[in-house]
Design brief:
The chain is mainly alpha-helical. The two termini are about 40 Å apart. It has 22 helices and no strands.
């Protein structure tokens, strides 16, 4: 059996396994990486290169830095202060989406949602506002905020890594020119026209929200330091070229400072590192390497391009890649979808001889558009019971957001990153 066929078979296995999730995502990716090694497609160094990739290290460092903000209660304090200023239901939606969106740009999307869900439920119950109308915008904002920076979501770094391997320039706010308009339009939509689409939820099926954890025993200096370190780390990442310190080093320094200062215990710091993401990232990079080495990625790209006729319009390919990414991500893990789609998008760009940035950025953003189902992302699932939501509530509220994201990408990406500069 040829290496190309073997790689394609492992790709099919990965897709089926990621969709069904009978096997943990990280384990699936590891099986694929080991299988590619045992069949001789990749040598040992190629197989495990992804696990020690610099962007994996960046992920690990930011897990710890972000967790400190949650662990000290600073995230709760920020969320509580902002939402108190809202005097109406619509203003509350704006306040929630702004703070969640900004926090998700630099912290874990799921972590941000998990911390602020009890805060928002408490505000809704005290004020008499509908939980459903507040929780749905919250989880959407968590996904939208992930498109503000390269550390907003693990999948973002997969796009960054693909571009870096091709020698293309990347930056901390690489996704922001598209992510900021998407977040702004999302907030504007749900505060105006989309307000009527937000579900009230079925009160009878609502579950009790867990009581908020008390952080009264946490010294204020720890809360302040967790925020200061996060801000310093982000600033250092933004001005990476000026200060001459790589993003990965900055993240690790921030994590070390927080542990050494006792802001976050070593045990909690280690617990905050999501090994599922690390294993998924490492294994998927091995699959991406195999797709490139064997020509399987080029074969897939050529098949797609061939199906669209001779010399297809790059915008049509952008449309196809966006629609496929959106469709997959609403039924499987965002990160897993990104892991599968980025190598294909890279091959498509190469087959056209086009600038790969618009294709890869569109892929990453499409794979974050998990708004239309309760299983699209962990935050969506968290609020199903608390909001008393049904499947159709997500479809009704989320599809317009996907259309907004699609429109923004199709208009801005070809302008920001021309296919043939």
């Amino acid at each position: 059996m040829s290496p190309t066929t073997i790689t394609l078979l492992f790709l099919v296995f990965a897709i089926i396994s990621f969709v069904l999730e009978k096997i943990p995502l990280g384990l699936t990716a590891t099986i694929v990486a080991l299988g590619l090694n045992l069949t001789g497609v990749l040598d040992t160094s190629q197989t495990f290169a992804g696990y020690i990739n610099s962007n994996v290290i960046l992920c690990v460092g930011m897990f710890v830095v972000g967790q400190a903000l949650f662990e000290t209660g600073m995230a709760n304090k920020i969320g509580g202060v902002v939402t108190k200023f809202a005097k109406s239901e619509r203003m509350l939606i704006i306040a929630i989406m702004v703070i969640v969106g900004i926090m998700s740009g630099f912290l874990s999307n799921t972590g941000t949602a998990a911390v602020l869900i009890p805060v928002v439920c408490g505000i809704a119950d005290e004020s008499g506002y509908s939980r459903g109308r507040l929780l749905m915008p919250l989880v959407f904002a968590a996904a939208l905020g992930g498109n503000l920076s390269i550390i907003g979501a693990p999948g973002n770094l997969m796009g960054v890594n693909a571009l870096q391997e091709m020698g293309e320039p990347t930056s901390f706010f690489m996704y922001a020119p598209v992510g900021i308009p998407m977040l702004a339009l999302g907030i504007l939509f749900y505060a105006t026209i989309g307000f009527g689409l937000l579900p009230h939820g079925n009160k009878e099926s609502m579950t009790e929200v867990e009581k908020q954890k008390s952080f009264d025993d946490i010294p204020s200096w720890k809360q302040t330091m967790s925020l200061v370190v996060l801000i310093v780390v982000i600033l250092a990442m933004i001005f990476e070229k000026q200060i001459g310190i790589k993003l990965q080093v900055t993240a690790c320094i921030g994590a070390c400072v927080l542990v050494l200062a006792g802001v976050i215990p070593e045990k909690e710091a280690l617990k905050s590192i999501d090994l599922k993401v690390v294993l998924l990232f490492g294994g998927s990079l091995a699959l991406a390497a195999a797709l490139e080495k064997t020509g399987a990625g080029a074969l897939i790209a050529d098949t797609i391009v061939g199906a669209l006729g001779k010399e297809p319009n790059p915008r049509v390919l952008l449309l196809v890649i966006f629609l496929v990414g959106c469709a997959l991500t609403n039924f499987m893990s965002n990160t897993a979808t990104t892991a599968l789609m980025v190598p294909i998008a890279t091959s498509l760009a190469n087959s056209l001889g086009a600038d790969p940035r618009s294709m890869i950025i569109a892929t990453v953003i499409a794979c974050s558009c998990a708004y239309a189902t309760p299983i699209g992302m962990p935050a969506n699932t968290m609020v199903v019971g608390l909001g008393g939501f049904k499947f159709n509530d997500y479809v009704k509220s989320g599809l317009p957001m996907i259309l907004i994201a699609f429109a923004v990408c199709m208009v801005l990406l070809p302008i920001l990153f021309p296919f043939y500069p």
